[in-house]
Specification:
Layout lengths: L3 H15 L16 E6 L4 E2 L3 E8 L9 E6 L8 E4 L6 E9 L6 E9 L4 E10 L9 E5 L3 E6 L3 H4 L1 H21 L12 E6 L7 E3 L3 E4 L10 H17 L7 H12 L8 H10 L6 H4 L8 H19 L1 H9 L7 H13 L3 H14 L4 H24 L13 H7 L3 H4 L5 H18 L3 H19 L7 H5 L13
Parallel strand pairs: 2-8, 10-11, 11-13
Antiparallel strand pairs: 1-3, 3-6, 4-5, 4-7, 7-8, 9-10, 12-13
Helix pairs in contact: 3-4, 4-5, 5-8, 6-8, 6-12, 8-9, 12-15, 12-16, 15-16
The structure holds zinc ion.
Length: 488
């Protein structure tokens, strides 16, 4: 029987044999512990999980297409998969290495090898017994606009009729919005739009590949309105389908999606919300964020992007806005692209346009509720990302685990999106987030602030501990009870 002790021995041996072996550059420069391994689906792992691994190189060298292999530590010569590190993010990903269905609970150790560097080490997971209730399977429903992929036994499966009606009406609305600008010669959604509904949260409740992947859950702690999110993603798909000539700067494509879907996360007037950002001193100069739009504070960037599109619509009309956006010239960066086109069309550079927009926003009357809502929305989502970083990094958009759902469907794999076991901290914080969203929805800003303060206190306590195993002792006071008297 392969034991943990022998796994440890292997680690030690591999460190001794692997490190510093000058077989080929850059082997000699490797340091122990420069490779971080994460296993998925996220912990705790169970018999029945189909495990994947993501290896991140944290050292100084350029991880330039290095080859890496993985094997079970008990059969180190039988390579299960081989892949290379991405130059871009220094990560190597092994998708669905092994199905643990027929294994016994216990520690499962993997051997990772960089053959060219003669570097070998082992890492593994503790496999808990099969929970016995994991029966979800992929299922599909077809409607005129969309193909809905969902998992059986989930809230999406229960609400399929309502969801279908919602995506039908939202896609009809989105098509009408483009049609109004005179750019629809024919229906761009001849191939139904694939929408994947998952019960777990990844990112802010949705992400798009060539399929729109949306969280659908009765306990969605990201607080995002499903219909608005679906509309947002449908706009992206129509945009990508018909606006194929020239660039689509992110600030305009996201601005368009937020503007047409009626808001970011929730309904809201884009110009009023941008004016609130100015009043709160949260406004970010568009000329600063336009070239690296996705790096800007997320909520602020998206609200301002929508305001820019709304402002152009106000000044020049919808047809002109879409014609402008659909006919942008190529350029060195998004700022130059928009600025050149704006100058040619409106006689204003992007910087001049922004000066005018700020003057307009400054004069705009903003309801005090909108100011509170905008400020607290930014605070809420900053807090939500802080929580994800601390307690569920696989959901944070910068470290997300989001394998392509189509590949999973083809292989009948559901685990990466179907299940999340929650520690007490997850349950408590996520519940508080749903209460924050309810409070914002009912304009109870004092309550929202109180709840955010409570979440902040919890996260601060976790930040000062170094292990998630401390959740119970952090959160639950254990009372010392008097000893019970026993009779002889
Ligand atoms: Zn978007």
């Amino acid at each position: 029987m392969f034991t943990r002790a022998s796994a440890l021995l292997l680690v030690v041996l591999s460190l001794i044999t692997g490190m510093g072996a000058p077989i080929s550059a850059p082997a000699a420069q490797f340091q122990a512990g420069e490779f971080a391994v994460e296993f998925f689906p996220v912990a705790p792992y169970h018999i029945g999980d189909i495990l994947s691994a993501r290896v991140t190189y944290t050292g100084e060298l350029p991880a330039d297409n290095w080859e890496i292999t993985v094997a079970l530590a008990v059969e180190p010569d039988e390579v299960l998969q081989s892949t290379t590190f991405s130059q871009h993010n220094r990560q190597a990903i092994f998708y669905w290495i092994v199905d643990t269905a027929d294994m016994a609970p216990g520690f499962l150790s993997f051997q990772f090898t960089l053959p060219e560097a003669s570097l070998t080490w082992t890492e593994g997971v503790h496999l808990l017994p099969d929970p016995g209730d994991r029966t979800a399977e992929w299922a599909v429903a077809h409607s005129t606009c969309c193909t809905l992929h969902y998992l059986t036994g989930t809230d999406a499966a229960a609400d399929l009729a309502e969801i279908t009606a919602a995506v039908e009406s939202r896609s009809a609305l989105a098509l009408a919005q483009f049609d109004e600008a005179g750019v629809l010669d024919e229906n761009p959604l001849t191939d139904p739009l694939p929408i994947v509904l998952i019960p777990v949260v990844v990112g802010h409740g949705g992400f798009a590949t060539d399929e729109a992947v949306l969280t659908y859950s009765h306990h969605n702690w990201t607080g995002i309105n499903f219909e608005i999110l679906a509309h947002h993603e449908i706009v992206h798909v129509i945009d990508r389908t018909i606006n194929t000539n020239g660039p689509r700067p992110a600030i305009l494509s996201e601005g368009l999606a937020v503007y047409l879907s009626g808001g970011h996360y929730r309904e809201g007037d884009p110009l009023e919300r941008a004016a609130a950002l100015l009043a709160l001193d949260l406004y970010l100069p568009i000329t600063d964020i336009v070239n690296d739009f996705y790096a800007a504070q997320h909520e602020i960037g998206y609200m301002q992007a929508a305001a820019l599109v709304a402002y152009l619509d106000l000044l020049y009309g919808w047809e002109t806005v879409i014609d402008f956006y659909f006919n942008l010239p190529e350029g060195p960066d998004d700022k130059a692209i928009i600025s050149t086109a704006s100058e040619a069309r409106f006689g204003l550079s992007l910087a001049e346009l922004e000066v005018d927009m700020i003057a307009y926003l400054t004069d705009l009357h903003v309801d005090s509720n909108v100011i509170s809502d905008v400020g607290l929305t930014v605070e809420t989502y900053d807090m939500l990302r802080r929580y994800q970083t601390l307690a569920i990094p696989s959901a944070h958009f910068r470290s997300a685990w989001w394998p392509h759902p189509r590949h999973m469907r083809m292989q009948g794999i559901v685990g990466d999106y179907a299940y999340r076991e929650k520690a007490p901290l997850h349950i408590i914080v996520e519940h508080k987030f749903t209460q924050v969203h309810d409070a914002l929805e009912s304009a109870d800003y004092t309550q929202a602030e109180t709840l955010l303060t409570e979440i902040d206190a919890l996260l601060t306590r976790v930040e000062h501990t170094d292990s998630l195993f401390l959740f119970e002792t952090v959160l639950v006071k254990i009372h010392t009870l008097p000893r019970q008297l026993t009779r002889p």
